[in-house]
Amino acid sequence: MNIDRNLDTVIVGAGFAGMYCLHKQIQDGFNAEIFEKADDVGGTWYWNKYPGARCDIESMDYSYSFSDELQQEWNWKEKYGTQPEILEYARFVSKKFNLREKINFKTSIVKARFINKKWIVQTDNDLIIECKYLILATGNLSTPNTPNIEGISNFKGRIYHTGAWPEKMPEFEGRKVGIIGTGSSGVQSIPVISETAQELLVFQRTANFSLPARHSELPINKRENYKKNYKKYRELAQNSSFGIAKYQPPTKSAFDVNKDERDEIYENAWQEGGQAMLFAFTDLLTNKEANETAANFVRNKIRKIVKNKETAEKLCPNDHPIGTKRLCLDSNYFETYNKENVSLIDISNHPIQKITKKGLVTNDIEYEFDDLVFATGFDAMTGAVNAIEILNEENISLKSVWSKGPKTYLGIMVSDFPNLFMITGPQSPGVKSQMILSIEQHVNFIHDLIIHKKNNKYLQVNANRNKQDEWVNHNNEVANATLYPLAHSWYNGDNIVGKSRNFMPYVGGVANYKNICDEKVKNDYEGFEFL
Ligand code: N01
Predict the structure, then answer these.
(1) How far is 201 from 513, CA to CA, in rounded Å?
(2) Rounded to the nearest whole angstrom, what is the distance from the C-alpha of residue 159 to the centroid of ligand 1?
(3) CA angle, 370 as apex, 365 and 371 as ends, to 5°?
(4) CB-count exposure of residue 357 (10 Å: 0-12, 13-18, 19+)
(5) pTM, 2 dp
(6) I need a surface site. Which of 150, 291, 460, 486 has the fewest CB within 10 A?
């Protein structure tokens, strides 16, 4: 086999994980390169260019902390970063740290095989690279899911997916638009599309909880004050459950206060905006009755906002505890259903039968529109990893090993796949936290592990099978002590037909998780085997 390039490290993906990983590698003299399918950096923020896309974590938190110079230099303009602003930030970082020259854009990794203690990696343009380390920075929500609905190729209008939005924003002026999906992407795009579309038809299979974001510009004095105290805020975030400084663990049960006091606390959180409500009480995600107090509060808000009583009831979620699916944050989502040009079509009992030339059929009724938007989510957490054919020394594919669900050690390594690392993989807190904080913690851990291996002149590092099983069991125990598994959600793989049901993120909190990782290091990299 002809090797075209020899590297220490191949990193897959130029999102926030890949970029920080490359920076660390370069700093310590490794010969590392990124391979990225897109023609620019940004990962999820490159692809999700749909109308209204913005982060649901405040920008002062959702940013890198590794360089104080960077966090002092960059000026966020909005409370919640918009997709263009976050993409601009990613580009800025890639230039500031001279990363771009080490990024192979428009190049996907399609195959990797571990042979003679090296990874032999193949790209979609038939480049063969030999490397010591393969690091998957492929993102958790990066493989768009378009449901396989009969007749989709017959549709004569324009089709979009929120997770693979075109570079040039389509005009919806004067057009009739159909949108399928009411998760975070739908909830953010529906109000914005409704501003220009002549008519918007929303096809809702499951009503979703959404809280007001209370978005605003970021006042300069607030930003500068935050910057002065960044060290304190970053520490608070690291010591929290979700990696967000202002959401510290609550101390009271929902039943430590009476109904009036409880509702006042929920009302304050609702007015404050963001996810504050979920952090009001200790037991909202562990006790159904406690959860129901918050869920009911939100349902009553929906009933007050939405004028048409029937529509309001359809929008009230009742199939899962609040917060057990990723909670949406919105700007005027429920208010949008008061607009003349917006209709909600409840398909909970009437799945879409087929897509036709002019629209779609549900409940034997054909709805016609010019444009169809899929806001139908992603093959989350495992989709992008499984898209690469990854073979170990015994020629066994990772996809086959994960056929009944992913198993990892700490979300970082998979047993029998030496020198292969994942950033925020399954069974790590990634998607249940402020992602960039989790990315930094993972990259630091992986990087230190590689340096330890190198300094000790080991050729490979592997995750111990028993320790991996223990970790997976621990994950399941932690999840099963919560209400999360009760929801039909992408956390469980429920949204993908044929995907085995497993609760994938670690929900023990980022502070606990980091302590566990630090403990493994102290115990001489417990659970990692070196050869
Ligand atoms: O995807 P989703 P998303 N027929 O899977 C429906 C992050 N994110 O892209 O609930 C009809 O949540 C599906 O219905 P149901 C965030 O972590 C963050 O919105 O399965 N409907 C659901 O309504 C988020 O959780 C941000 O019954 C079908 C919707 O499509 C994650 O990405 C913004 C269907 C999919 O919802 C995913 O969010 C955006 C079918 N065949 C995303 N198939 C922010 O930072 C699916 N649906 C703010």
Answers:
(1) 43
(2) 17
(3) 100
(4) exposed
(5) 0.97
(6) 150
Q: How far is CA 419 from CA 21, 196, 394, 424, in A?
A: 15, 51, 15, 16
427 close to 8: Cβ distance less than 8 angstroms: no
What is the residue whose two structure tokens read 């918009």? 82
Place 432 in a pLDDT band, splitting at 50, 70 and 90.
Answer: very high
Pairing verdict, β 32-35 and 5-12: parallel
pLDDT (average), residues 30-49: 98
> 273 in ligand 1 pocket by Cβ < 6 Å?
no
C-alpha 259/C-alpha 457 separation (Å) is 63
Pairing relationship of beta strands 109-115 and 118-123 according to DSSP bridges: antiparallel
Contacts of 47 (CB under 8 A, 6+ apart): 38, 142, 144, 163, 164, 165
Q: Tens of pLDDT along 216-272?
A: 999 999 999 999 999 999 999 999 999 999 999 999 999 999 999 999 999 999 999
How many A from CA of 142 to the centre of ligand 1?
13
pLDDT at position 111 over 90: yes
Which residues of 187-319 form beta strands (DSSP E)? 199-204, 210-212
333 phi and psi angles, rounded to 5 deg? -65, -55
* Protein residue whose Cα sits closest to atom 13 of ligand 1: 181
Q: How many CB atoms lie within 10 A of CB 253?
A: 14
Beta partners for 113? Answer: 120, 391
**pLDDT the model gives residue 383:** 98
Q: Is the CB of 183 under 6 A from ligand 1?
A: yes
Q: What local confidence, expressed as pLDDT, does residue 397 receive?
A: 98
Give CA–CA dist 348/204, Å, rounded. 7
* Spatial distance between the Cα atoms of 418 and 132, rounded to a whole number of angstroms: 10
Residue found by looking up tokens 């958790």 in the block: 140
- In the block, residue with structure tokens 């002065």: 228
Task: Give SS3 for 492.
Answer: helix
- Residues 93-106 pLDDT 10s: 999 999 999 999 99
Q: How many residues does the chain have?
A: 531
Q: Distance between CA atoms of 214 and 270, rounded to whole angstroms?
A: 9
Q: Round to whole Å and give the CA distance between 30 and 14.
A: 17
SS3 276: helix
Question: With a 6 A CB cut-off, is 490 part of the ligand 1 pocket?
Answer: yes
pLDDT of residue 273: 96
- Decide: residue 203, CB within 10 A, 0-12 exposed, 13-18 middle, 19+ buried: buried
Q: Report CA(377)–ligand 1 centroid distance (Å).
A: 4
Q: Are residues 162 and 20 in contact, defined by beta-carbon separation less than 8 angstroms?
A: no
